[in-house]
Amino acid sequence: MDRTAPTSKLSTALSPAFIGRSPTMTSNAQVMSTGKVLLSARPSNLALFDWWASYDSASAGLFSSSSGLLSASTNFKIGIVSFESKGTSVTLAFALVFFTHFCFHLEVWETQRKTATSVFNHHRFQTFVVKTIWNKVEKGLIPVFEHASELGTEMDLKGLFQHFTFDSACILVLGHDPASLSIGLPDVAYEKEFNDAEEALLYRHILPESFWKLQRWLQVGKEKNYSKAWETLDLLIAQCISSKPRDTTSAALTWFFWLVATNPSVENKIREEITTKLHPKEDNRLHLCFSNINDQEMKKLVYLHGALCESLRLFPPVPIQHKASVQPDILPSGNKIGANTRIILAFYAMGRMETIWGKDCLEFKPERWITEQGGTKHEPSYKFITFNSRPRSCLGKDMTFIQMKIIAITTIYNYNVQVVDAHAISPCSSIVLHMKDGLKVRVTKRRV
Ligand code: HEM
C-alpha cells in the first residue's frame, strides 16, 4: 500500500496560504467546509501548523481557485522586492554566507545571484560537484553502509544524510573535508544550533513582528535560543559555510528514502530501471560500477527522477515562504491587499492540493512525472513550487538532483533499506521540514 501517512495529516493542517493582516479566526470546521483544506486527525506536534490553518479565513476564500493560487504565487515579485528593499529580511545570518537563501537588500541579492549563477553554471564547478559527491559516496557512504550491514545494527538515515551533505558543502565551499561521514558517525556538527535557529526563524515568519522583536530585545524564549545559536554559528559563518543547502538536501533525502522503503513497488521499479538503463556489471556489483556514469546516462533514469520529484512535492524541504507587499495590490483572485501585508505561501499544502495535482494528490506516484512517450514530464515552477518560482528560484536545484540521484542509485541498487518497525515518523516545526525523530533503518547488502 502506498504510504504518505504523515503527509496527509500535515497537509490537512496547512492552509494553502494566508494573508497576514487583520486575520479573522475561523474554526477548522469552517476551513473544511470551504473544501480548500482537507481535514483528518493531526499529530499532536503540529500545533503550530494547526494554528495557521485556523488563523486565516482569507486563505480559504482568497485563493478560491487553483489558478488563483498559482498565479498568486507568481505575483509575489512585488512582495519579494519589497521584502528586500525594505531590509526587513528575517534571515540576515543566512545572507552572509556564500550559498545564500535569503538576501537582505535587493542590490546585494542581485549581485549575489549573478555571482552565484556564474559559478553554478560553470562546467568546471559542475564537474567538481559530481566528482565530490561520487567521492563522498565511495569513501564515506559505502563504508558506513557496509559496516552497518555486517553488524546488522540500526542506523539513523537522517543523521547520515546530514553528515553527507555537511561534508560535501564543506568540500565545495572551503575545499576542506571534515570527514564527519565516517563509521561511528560522530555528532552532527552544530546540529543543536542549526535546529534552534531554524525553529526560531519559523516562528518569526508567523508571529507578529513586534512580538518576536520584543522577545529578541528581552532575550527570552526562542529568540534567546536563536542568539545563543548564532554566537556558536558565527564561528562556522566565519568559514563561509552555509547551513541551508546542507539541511534542505538531507531532509529531502530522508523523506525520499522513507517513501521508497515503504513503497516496495517503487523500489523495485527503480532497481529495474537502473539495471536496464545503466547495465551494471555483475562481477562488480558494488558502487564502483556506477561511478563513471555521466550526466546523459543519469538523464535516462526517468522513473527515478519522477520518484524524486514526487518526494519533493509531498515533502518540500522548505515548507513555507513568507513575502510582503510593497504597495496596495489586487491579487489574481480579486482580493485586495494593502501595503506591507504579510503573505505566507504554504508550499507543503500546495504540493498536495487536489485542485493542483488532481484526485490522487496524496499518493506517492512517480508515474505522475512521466509522459506517455516515456520521457520526463516537466511541470512549471509555479506548480512544482518546491524550489520556488522566479526570480528567487533555487540555484542549487540541478545540484540537488545530481546529489540525490547519485546517492539513490548507489544505495537502492546495492542495499535493502528497511525502516525499523514502530519507529514513529513525524515532521518537526521548523523552516526546514526535517523528520522529527530521524529515520531509523537497517541496511543489508542486496543479492542480485
Ligand atoms: C532539496 C534541496 C533544496 C530545496 C528544496 C531548495 C529550495 C530553495 C528555495 C525554496 C529557495 C527560495 C528561498 C527564498 O527566496 O526565500 C532557494 C533559494 C536558493 N537556493 Fe536552494 N534549495 C535546495 C538546495 C540547494 C542547494 C544544494 C544549493 C546550493 C548548493 C542551493 C542554493 C540556493 C541559492 C543560492 C538560493 C538563493 C537564490 C536567490 O535568492 O537568488 N539550494 N532554494
Characterization of the model:
The chain is mainly alpha-helical and 448 residues long. The chain has two domains: 122-318 and 352-445, Cytochrome P450 (Cytochrome p450); 321-346, no CATH class. 53% of the residues lie in helices and 7% in strands. The protein has helices at residues 5-13, 28-34, 47-55, 57-62, 66-74, 77-85, 92-95, 106-120, 123-151, 157-174, 191-206, 209-218, 221-238, 244-261, 264-278, 295-299, 302-314, 347-350, 354-357, 397-414; strands at 17-19, 154-156, 320-324, 329-330, 336-337, 342-346, 415-419, 440-445. The strands form three sheets. The chain has a three-stranded antiparallel β-sheet with strand order 1-6-3. It has a three-stranded antiparallel β-sheet with strand order 2-8-7. Helix 14 (244-261) packs across helix 17 and helix 14 runs parallel beside helix 20. It is globular and about 65 Å long. The two termini are 24 Å apart. Bound molecules: protoporphyrin IX containing FE (HEM). Belongs to the cytochrome P450 family. GO terms for molecular function: heme binding; iron ion binding; monooxygenase activity; oxidoreductase activity, acting on paired donors, with incorporation or reduction of molecular oxygen. Heme binds at residue 394.
